[in-house]
User: What shape does this take?
Amino acid sequence: MTSPRKGDVHHSLSVLDAVAVLVGVVVGIGIFGFPPLVAQHSATIPIYLGLWVAGGAIMLVGALCYAELGCAYPDSGGEYHFLVKAWGAPVGVLFAWARGTVIQTGAIAAVAFIYGDYAQTLLSLGAYGPALHGASAVAMLTLLNIAGTVGSKRLQLVLTGATITALLIVSVVGLTLSTGAAAVLPDTPWQAPSGSLAASLGMGMVFVLLTYGGWNEAAYLSGELRNPQRNMSQVLLIGAAVITVVYLLVNLAYLRIFGLDGLRATHAVGADLMRLVAGPWSAVLLSLLVCCTALGTINGSIFTGGRMYYALGRDVPALRGLGTWSARGATPVRALWLQGVITLLLILFGALTNGGVQAMVAYTAPVFWLFMFLTASAVVVLRQRDKDRHRPFRVPLYPLTPALFALSCLALCWSSVQYAGVGALLGLAVLLAGLPLLWLERRVPSA
Assistant: This one.
């Protein structure tokens, strides 16, 4: 196997360019939906803030591992490609199944519920309003993507700016205009979640790391970064620091307004903050911005998620129909239809369990962290198996760094299974339902 040639990739990204991309990918809708859920698993304010700092550290270590894999084995398949290289085609195919039926669809459904919570403040649709709003958004954006790639990309450009705008408004208003009144308090005293303290903190960390989600995209920056041996660590350190500081500032604003008890009780935390500090019309404005941010996240996830079904159809003859590509719309139509149906069924499941976002996190978390563990372990496996491979970037403090990240992934997988209950079991059951694919798949050639 030959090393990649320097002339194969155009190294056009500076450190500043790469940091901007990384921050833009990570900072998103989660900061408007997950903080109350983190607060519900935190007994004190120091524990709450500590979880966010720890999440930033785990994000950095994970990004370092992904950066080595991305530099050594650049491929648009991302984790799918890494898993095939390290563990073989069957594991890669099973990951594609899991991503299509659990990880990606569950993530889209979770964001749909966050969108629904904010849309419900603008137009109430009754007890199942968040689910109805979320399902409508998924259905319309799936149809838009089926119609063609051009319309989807144009909408994405329109929605992208709402995220940073909303974050700036919340941070500035919460930290400068607040009198510190905790005005949204629960009717009953907070009770710690059932189960062990470690499991509760672990589940809190799951919500934190969902908010930090997207850091694994750093793997795809390495191939276009100038002098990746020197600059990759700078990009990751600066990017992780910026993201962590931004999230801490927003959370300090939340705590200043609500206090920890009030934060646990709110559902649309950004809108509630603006309503308390600047009145109902400002809450409406922020809700509109957050809805736009959520729609952008849903649209982008639908766009990229359909491509994984396409890869599964390409590699498993029995699912060849999913590999059909529409030349007219430049989009995998059948894959998008299937993804949309699965996502709508998950929204229905979340609505019936009265869990919403929590039900979707429980459904996706164990499977997500299981494959994240396998990806982290791939750093060690490929170092041993492919010693002569050219690695433009090497994770520092090897093998301690990938070992720590792999153990963190295992701990988070266990915590989510132990605490999340029926949703976690359903996600694992769907993963196991994909085992027959291992007998149907043809051998995926190594790259």
